[in-house]
Structure formats: C-alpha cells, structure tokens
C-alpha cells in the first residue's frame, strides 16, 4: 500500500504547505511545469519523487525529467505527462499511447484545472491535480492525495491551499 501526493504547475513557487500535506505520503509525483530545480530538489529531499517536465520547464529540468513517465506503483500501471488532456479530449501527443496500451492511472497537468474523472472506455482513472503555484489563471491552488493498494485506488483527497495573494 502506498500513499501518493500529486502536484502540478508549481512554476517555481515554493509553499511549506506542500511538505505539511505530503507528510503522510510515501511518494510525491509532479505533473510538470515545476519551474525550478530548487522546487524539484526540495520535494525530492522530502520523499521519493517522480516528475515530468512541462512546457514551461527549462533546460536543467528537461535533462532531469522526461516528458512522459510510465511506471508501476503497487499493481497499477501509471502514466504521467504534463500536456495530456482528459477523457474525451486527450492531447494528440499521448493519444496513441493511451489508446493502444492504456494505463490504469493517467496523470496530467497543464490546464491548471483540477479534474478527477474515470474513463470507462479505457478503464482508466484520470487525475489533473490543478495548479499548486501562483502563476496562471486558476482561482484555487490544489493538490491531490490518494492511496494505491494493490490495484485499488482509495482515500482520494483534494486539498485546497490558501492563496497568499488573496489574504
């Protein structure tokens, strides 16, 4: 059983609340637009860290992280890609992979819009954790936590972070 913290679109912004909310997690997964090596390093020092680079990530992050990351967690096939779309509207860059060999869990970022949706056609759970940073058009900063137990997803939580610009 593994507890996973999912984050995206930090755009170089650091918030100590990331560590507070990811304290019970075994791993942290970042769905791109990390923004700085410093943010990636701080998360990686805290917990085992998996990430993909996003369209706003520079050269150093592109050398550290691929555009797509596919791996097993427990008995679940996981795919993370920054620009990936969502059920019914997958991005062309990942469509072939998803339709020929669908993962059980597909995580994408980019839109800054929190979305958790099951794709019954592909039998795949899609999660976009929204955006945790300040840059962008989102109205709320969000994170996601969930537990993967064997091949089962459970205890999913959406966490809304305070926006320091709106105090």
Offer a few descriptive terms:
single chain; alpha/beta; five-stranded mixed β-sheet; 4 helices
Overall structural class, as computed from helix and strand content, comes to alpha/beta
The low-confidence runs, each spanning 5 or more residues with pLDDT under 50, are none
| Main sheet attributes: strand count, strand direction, barrel closure | 5 strands, mixed
Task: Give me the count of strands.
Answer: 12
Helix content: 10-25%
Radius of gyration: 15 Å
Q: Classify the beta-strand content into a percent band.
A: 35-45%
Averaged pLDDT: 96
Strand order in space, largest sheet = 3-2-1-11-12
Helical segment count: 4
So what's the oligomer here?
single chain
End-to-end distance: 38 Å
Spell out the helices and strands N to C. EHEHEHEEEEHEEEEE
Outline type: globular
Question: Could you give a quick summary of the protein structure above?
Answer:
This protein is of the alpha/beta class and 167 residues long. The protein has four helices and twelve strands; from the N terminus they run βαβαβαββββαβββββ. It has a five-stranded mixed sheet. Strands 4-5-8-10-9 form a five-stranded mixed sheet, with no helix packed on it. A two-stranded antiparallel ribbon has the order 6-7.
